[in-house]
Specification:
Belongs to the methylenetetrahydrofolate reductase family. GO terms for molecular function: FAD binding; methylenetetrahydrofolate reductase [NAD(P)H] activity. The chain is α/β, with parallel strands linked by helices. About 45% of the residues lie in helices and about 15% in strands. The protein is built from 12 helices and 8 strands. It binds flavin-adenine dinucleotide.
């Protein structure tokens, strides 16, 4: 099923989706598969599987995505990057998706590899829009295509001097007009910034578009700091103050505060956009506890849960790694 069709069918009812990454080891994969079984009971509208820049995880990504789609019957979306890679890898991924009933692709540019690699780089692909056009050209409307956006502006490398939504906006509009069906954002912790971004996009586009905010639950203070640094997401003072030095090392406390914060961010976005933004994408980092608690405790999201109490028991007895 196409994500965009499922969203339309909901007619504004709140939903959520989960992102997973393919584990490196067999043991990691076994743990994730067990967890995926439990997390599918949370009734996400769809799940996404990340793609290592340059195609480094291609077969693991495809395997995991096919398992999600076929074995777990989850509507699945494959992330796909197009730079520093060969057209063959892209073609193979699209064909594997097509052959296995996966109808959703998140079309991305990707970051340059950290180490110089010898890959047959295809100059046809410079930006994500080139991949959007390529998929539409090869497969017509078969795929539902998502694209990435940055509520605080995209940062190239580490130079954040040009970080602004105005800089990216024309290119985002181009991606949407080239045939993208929905937008998923980079993680953020400043809901005001997301709302400003959403309103600007809507105004500049001149029509509605599905924008799904990307949210990363806070599992530990260290991971929170790392994620915000890497993604150049700002921490508003009111959020920073939730984590005074004496709680930063208490993972359970940090997690609880993070769960409440996420629920507040979801509520704020829903209210400020008058329910126009009704879907929330969780970067799970392959962990289940925080996400399960967020959807269970959120009055907006919990109606999607059909087995909430049963699930709570299941997660309490499961380990996180
Ligand atoms: P683009 O839309 O191409 O934009 C990249 C930059 O180029 C922006 O600064 C934009 O303003 C600028 N730009 C765009 N078009 C033009 C143009 N025509 N002329 C000049 N400038 C232009 N990476 C992975 O490797 N694997 C993943 O699985 C993955 N998943 C992601 C999921 C989400 C939701 C997000 C937000 C990001 C993800 N990324 C992933 C990271 C992403 O690949 C990087 O952020 C990358 O640097 C930009 O990708 P993009 O698709 O946004 O690029």
């Amino acid at each position: 099923t196409k994500i965009i069709d499922k969203i339309k069918e909901l007619k504004g009812e709140p939903f959520y989706s989960f992102e997973f990454f393919p584990p490196k080891t067999d043991n990691g994969l076994r743990n994730l598969l067990a967890r995926l079984g439990r997390m599918s009971m949370l009734n996400p509208l769809f799940v996404t599987v990340t793609w290592g820049a340059g195609g480094t995880t291609s077969s693991k990504t495809l395997d995991l995505a096919i398992t999600c789609q076929k074995d777990l019957d989850l509507t699945t979306c494959i992330h796909l990057t197009c730079t520093n890679t060969s057209k063959k890898l892209i073609d193979n991924a699209l064909k594997a998706a097509y052959d296995n009933g996966i109808k959703n692709i998140l079309a991305l540019r990707g970051d340059p590899p950290r180490e110089a690699q010898e890959v047959a780089v295809d100059q046809d692909f410079k930006y994500a829009i080139d991949l959007v056009r390529y998929i539409r050209g090869q497969y017509g409307d078969y795929f539902c295509i998502g694209v990435a956006a940055y509520p605080e502006g995209h940062v190239e490398g580490n130079d954040d001097s040009e970080q602004s939504i105005d800089h990216d906006m024309p290119y985002l509009l181009e991606k949407i007009n080239a045939g993208a069906d929905f937008v998923v954002t980079q993680l953020f912790y400043d809901a005001d910034k997301f709302c400003t971004f959403y309103n600007t996009l809507k105004q500049r586009l001149g029509r509605d578009v599905v924008v799904i905010p990307g949210l990363m639950p806070i599992n530990t203070y260290q991971l929170f700091q790392r994620a915000t640094n890497l993604s150049h997401a700002s921490i508003p003072p009111a959020v920073g103050q939730l984590f005074p030095p004496d709680v930063r090392h208490d993972d359970d406390k940090v997690k609880d505060i993070g769960v409440k914060l996420m629920i507040d961010i979801v509520d704020q976005i829903y209210n400020e956009t008058h329910g126009e933004v009704n879907g929330y994408h969780f970067y799970t980092l392959n962990l289940e506890k925080s996400v399960a608690q967020i959807v269970d405790k959120s009055s907006l999201l919990s109606p999607r849960l059909t087995v909430s109490s049963r699930f709570e028991n299941a997660i309490e007895s499961s380990s996180e790694d």
